[in-house]
Structure formats: C-alpha cells, structure tokens
Amino acid sequence: MNGQTPGGGRERRRLPEDRMPKGGVNAPVPVAPNATPATDPRLIVRQEGLRGYLGEFRRRLHSGELGSLPVVLALVVIWAVFGSLDSSFLSAQNLSNLSQQIVGTGMIAIGVVFVLLLGEIDLSVGSVSGLCAAIFAVLNVTHGVNAWVAMLVAIAGGTVVGVVQGLFFAKVGVPAFVVTLAGNLGWNGAMLQILGASGTVNLSGNDIVSRLYSTIYGQQAAAYGAAAVAVLLFLGALLLEARRRRGAGVPSRPAADIALRTALLAVVAFLAAYTLNQYKGLPLALLVFLVFIVVLDFVLRRTSYGRQVFALGGNIEGARRAGINVAWIRISVFAICSTMAAVGGLFLAAQIQSASQTSGGGNLLMNAIAAAVIGGTSLFGGRGSTWSALLGALVIGSIQSGMNIQGLSNAIQFMITGAVLLAAVVVDSLARRTQRAAGRA
C-alpha cells in the first residue's frame, strides 16, 4: 500500500539530503530574518510610560476587568452626597467612629471573601460569630477563665465549626448552601444553650477583647508612624519584587511606576492618619483589622495555597487535573471563614459590651456577605481580594452612618443597602459577560 508501513502506520517521509538542515533532524529551526520576536505585553506597557498605562487602563475597562474602580467611585459619591447634606458626616469624629464600627462586620467579610473565591457561600457566619462571642463571655465572666485563654478557645471553636462544615461539603458532598443553612440554625441554638436562662452576659470592660476594640492611641506619632510603616513596607515589597523579576530576566516595574504607586499610598495613608488625629487618634481595632487584611492578602496573592484557592474557584475540574487537593482546599477555606467569623463576633461583642441572644442575628449575615460582594469579590468565584472586605464595609457603614445622621428609618437603610448590593452583583455579571466576549473568562 502506498504511503503505509507494514504495521499499518503512516510512513514518515524523509527530506532529501540536500534539503536536510545542518546538524540533522535535531538542529534548531532557522528564524526568518524579518520575523518579530515575541514580546511580553506588560513590558510594552511599562516602556511606553503614562501613555502605555492609560491604554492598558482603557483595554481593561473594555474587557470588563473593572477591579475596585466601581466601589471606589461609589464610596466617593456616597461621601459627597452625605457630606453635602450634613457637614458632620465628614467630620473627624464621625469618620473615626466609622473606622471602629466597621471592624466586626469587616472581619467576618474577610472570611466570606475566601468562600466566595470558591464560588460557594457560607450562611452560618452570623450564628458562628454569636456562638464564639457567647463562648468567650461565659468562660471569662461566668467561669472566671483567663481572658486570653477564653479568647483563644472561642476562636478555636470557630475553626472547629468551619472544619466540620467543610467536611460535610468536601467529603460527604452536601451543597455548601445546605450545610451552612443548617449551621445557621444549629449554631444559633448552641449559642442560646451556652448563654443559659439569663440570655445575656455582660463583659467586664477590662478584658483583652474589650481593650482591643476600645483602645485608641492618642499620640499623633502613633497614627503617623503607622502610616509611615505601611508606606515603607509597600515600597520595600515593590523594590524586592522588581529586583527578583530583573534577576529572573522578566519585565519589572520601572522606578517611575514604583514612585507613583508609593506616593499615592502615602497620600491616602497620611490623610487618614491626619483625620484620625483630629479626633482622638489611631483606634487599635482599625489597626488590627488592617493587619488581618494585609496578612491574608499576602496568603492569597503570594503563596501557593492562595493560588490554589483562585485556581479552584476559576475551574474546579482544571484544578483537580492539575493535582490540587480539592477537598483540603475546600475544608481549609471554610475553616478560615468560620475563624474570621469568630474574630468578628468578639469585636462585635466588645462593641456592645455583651453577648446576648441577639448576637450574630439581625442583618449581620447579609451585611457581611454584602460587604464582600460590594467590595468587588465575585459571586461566581475566582476573583476577589481581602481588600474587598474593607471597601465593602466602608460602603455599608457609610450608608448607615449617613442615614442615621439624617434621621432616616431602618427600613430605608435596608432598601438602599439592598439596592447597592444588587447594583454590585449587576456590575459583576456585566463584567463577566464582557470578559467572555473578550475571551478572558
């Protein structure tokens, strides 16, 4: 048979000797003289300077990669509107109080971000926060356990709750929605059982949790020092990254880019420090909140574990084929979520100086999820950041604060917050549609 080998396979044709490249079949293929070598597009952007970055910004907008831009614009509009209605809204006192009040919900929202990155949901975070607050209050106040020990036990209790729920989801195969909905009821019942007949346990006010929330560093050097440390750490991280990229022979940020980013952060950080110093100073609760955001953002962005979380949220089957332990990632994410719910519950208990039957109830669950989504974390998984918790909590807290100043009812607050949440989801859905049209989703 023509062109067939005796075994039925296709015969491989050999080039004539005069057309065989020098060095045999393994010789490198010659490159055409006029061929253009492949260039990393990031290098082109950085070489073009400001013009390149503006072009890249327009491209990202057209392809639906909006990032935090919508929520930042929304926050500016909210502050401008309420500031024009009442000048006290933008006063140092109100903004300082706002920075403390968002910490509890913001801590819970950080954990919700991790679950949303998987494309899942946790409906138990409100009840878990109340349960852990009750554990701390009963151990410390009722049984006289050391406050540090009681706090660690309460946080560990949140971790255990997350592991249990993660096992049901990852190993048994029960949908996360069902597992955490059942947990919302079950952990709330456990909280009521722990609190007992009284239903309320008042904190002493001198315990570690209360001090973490209420302590404010009045020295102006504290706020300015924290701002300076943040800027220096950010600059150091950028310089280290640029050095490592240059050493690896890949494009790195030019000095002008690093200087501009550092200057923008410095303006925001020192303006915030100046505002806080106009009232009482730097709240310790805000500082702890920011530390959690930075550390967990590093985990998501700079560790193999974080990359696995994003990979699992983007394409579960692809992540499984890449060798990622899907069950382990799922369990660990739910453990992180419940742990952060416990931390947030402790701050909320310190805010009202008690743990009661209403702890973790009301609109706390919706506010925590809304903060993560409004801040820019996608409900569809694979896209988000711990900074979403800060931005989203600021939006929700600003709306509530502004409406309280205006004397509007809770009904109006709920409707407007719901409208903002819906708008955030609509923007997320449209962005995903645009990304798919551009071949980026």
List the helices and strands and how they pair.
Elements (H helix, E strand, L loop, with lengths): L40 H7 L2 H13 L6 H17 L6 H10 L1 H15 L7 H18 L4 H26 L3 H20 L4 E3 L5 H7 L1 E2 L2 H29 L6 H23 L4 E2 H19 L1 H11 L1 H6 L4 H27 L1 E3 L7 H11 L12 H20 L3 H28 L4
Antiparallel strand pairs: 1-4, 2-3
Helix pairs in contact: 1-2, 3-17, 4-17, 5-12, 5-15, 5-16, 5-17, 6-7, 6-8, 6-15, 7-8, 7-15, 9-15, 10-11, 12-13, 13-15, 16-17, 16-18, 17-18
Task: Outline the structure in words.
The protein has 441 residues and is mainly α. Helices cover 70% and strands 2% of the residues. It starts with 40 loop residues before the first helix and ends with a helix. The strands form 2 sheets. Strands 1-4 form a two-stranded antiparallel sheet. Strands 2-3 form a two-stranded antiparallel ribbon. The model is unreliable at 5-15, 19-29 and 35-40 (pLDDT under 50). The longest helix is centred in the middle third of the chain and has 29 residues, at 220-248. The chain has helices at 41-47, 50-62, 69-85, 92-101, 103-117, 125-142, 147-172, 176-195, 208-214, 220-248, 255-277, 284-302, 304-314, 316-321, 326-352, 364-374, 387-406, 410-437; strands spanning 200-202, 216-217, 282-283, 354-356. It has one domain (68-218, 280-437): ABC transporter involved in vitamin B12 uptake, BtuC (Orthogonal Bundle). The chain contains 18 helices and 4 strands.
